[in-house]
Structure formats: structure tokens, C-alpha cells
Amino acid sequence: MSERENVAVIMRLYSRLLDAEGLVRIINTTWTRHNYTLFVAHNGAGDGFVASDALRAAGHYVPVATNAGHIGGATALVQAGYRAARACGDFSAYLFIEADFWLVGDALIDEALSSMRREERPVASTIWVERNHSLAVDFLLMDGAFLRDNPELLDWDDHPEQYLSARLYPDRVHIIECLRPTHVPGLLRLMIPFGARTSVKGRFRLFPKAPALTHHLENLSANPLRAIAIKRGLANTLAGRRVFDDPPVRIPWQSVLQPLSRFVPQSSWFKKHCL
């Protein structure tokens, strides 16, 4: 375990209130290795997605009045969350996380921070698209001093994954291998039937070595309460204990293919890499 650090967790949220409430519970019950301060940056209230009193009280609630769309809205949320965190004091690291990305336990955070310090790399993320080495933004860890000196890293354009990659890859970023790959190789999709609990629209949902699970509830069930129960059950199984009151849900066997998928032939192996 690395030296205990003060980490600002900036959760961005629009409409996925059930996901956000679940992530708060996970943070409060399974993240124990560092000191975490939560900032919930939310821009959905104006469209009817009103945060509960419990969610508002879970940390520092940061309302953002307008939503500029999927990408512009995300940029406004990370910037607003970061400003709120800076106003609360200095943090040694900032973790930017999407409300529907459930990291069950914080061993991955601890390992990423240790690697960042050891390798003298100020950022940790995983590869989003293998062929161009773009960097995932659903889970993005940044050194506090480095971000304070380089706030333009949060000035995301229409392609934040490529925006960050162009500025950070490869020398300044520690790649989190257990979250890689995020997308199912095309050859594997042709060979193996993937259910919605494992993969949706070509993206992996389950990352057993993290352990983490993500992606949209509506793909699990049309009934949102049923969907969140399934996700909570999967989280219980990944954690190996009852984080939630829901019964554990069996992890589909296809999930073992996520870490192995890096070794499946992919088109990116035969194409020139470009950022």
C-alpha cells in the first residue's frame, strides 16, 4: 500500500442518479486506502433529473446550471468539479469518474498512485481505443500539482480521449492494464456470443481484475429498479461480499475473456498507429 494521500473524487452526473447513489455507497464502504473527498458535479436538474437529499449530502454537491450536450456537458462538469475542489484546499491527486463507473474497492487506485509516483508519471488512465492509443476519461487519475500547473488538460474538445492522448501519451501517463481493453476485439465478437451483462455495443461492461463494472443500466433491463438490482448484485459478486443488500448475481463466463482479449488479433496490430 502506498503512502496515504488526500484525493479529490470528482464524479460527473447528468441523469444516472441510481448509478451515482450506488457509486457513493461503494466509495463509502469499500474505498479505505486513502482519504477521499467527494465532489458531485451535476447538470441534470434543469431537465428533471433532480438529485436526492442523500446524494446532495454525500459530498460537496456542485450544481451546473446548463447542459451543453454529451461532450460539452462533460467538459463543464469536470471543470466545475475541479474548481470546487480547488476552493476546498490542496489535494495530492484528483480522480475524475463517471457516475456509472463502479470501482468496487480502491486497490486499483492505490496501485495506480504507487505506479505514478514510482514512474514519475503524473496521470493514470487506460487505453480507450487501441488503434490510436486514446485515453479513457470515465476513470482518470491526475497528480494534483501537475494538474494545477496544466489546467488546460480539462479543456476537452469533441474528442476528449484523443485530446488527452495527444498531450500525455506515452511519457506522462501510467496505463492501467487491468481495464484494458475497453472494447471487444471484432474477431472475438464474431466468435463468441456476449450477453448484455458482459458487453454492450462493443464495449466491455465487466472488468474482473479491477474489479469494476460500468455502462448503462437500460441495457440490463427496461425496468430501472430491476436493472439497478442486477448491477448491485454483480458488484456484490465482484467484491466477494455484500456491498449492497441485493443478492449476488453470477458473473457470466465471458467476463474471463476481458483481460485475455488483448492477445486476440486486432486490426490495430496491422495498421500504423496515429494519434
Description of the molecule:
The protein contains 9 helices and 12 strands. The chain is an alpha/beta fold. The strands form 3 sheets. Strands 3-2-1-4-7-6-8 form a 7-stranded mixed sheet, with helices on both faces. The longest helix is centred in the N-terminal third of the chain and has 18 residues. The chain is globular, with a radius of gyration of 18 Å. The two termini are 34 Å apart. The model has no long low-confidence stretch (mean pLDDT 94).
Compact summary:
The protein has 275 residues and is an alpha/beta fold. The protein has helices at residues 17-30, 53-56, 70-87, 107-119, 144-149, 160-168, 186-191, 224-239, 257-260; strands at 6-13, 35-42, 60-63, 93-98, 102-103, 123-125, 139-143, 173-175, 199-200, 203-204, 206-207, 212-213.
Task: Compile the SSE list and pairings.
Blueprint: E1 6-13, H1 17-30, E2 35-42, H2 53-56, E3 60-63, H3 70-87, E4 93-98, E5 102-103, H4 107-119, E6 123-125, E7 139-143, H5 144-149, H6 160-168, E8 173-175, H7 186-191, E9 199-200, E10 203-204, E11 206-207, E12 212-213, H8 224-239, H9 257-260
Parallel strand pairs: 1-2, 1-4, 2-3, 6-8
Antiparallel strand pairs: 4-7, 5-12, 6-7, 9-10, 11-12
User: Roughly what fraction of the amino acids lie in strands?
Assistant: 15-25%
Number of strands: 12
Radius of gyration: 18 Å
Ends apart, CA distance between termini: 34 Å
Mean pLDDT: 94
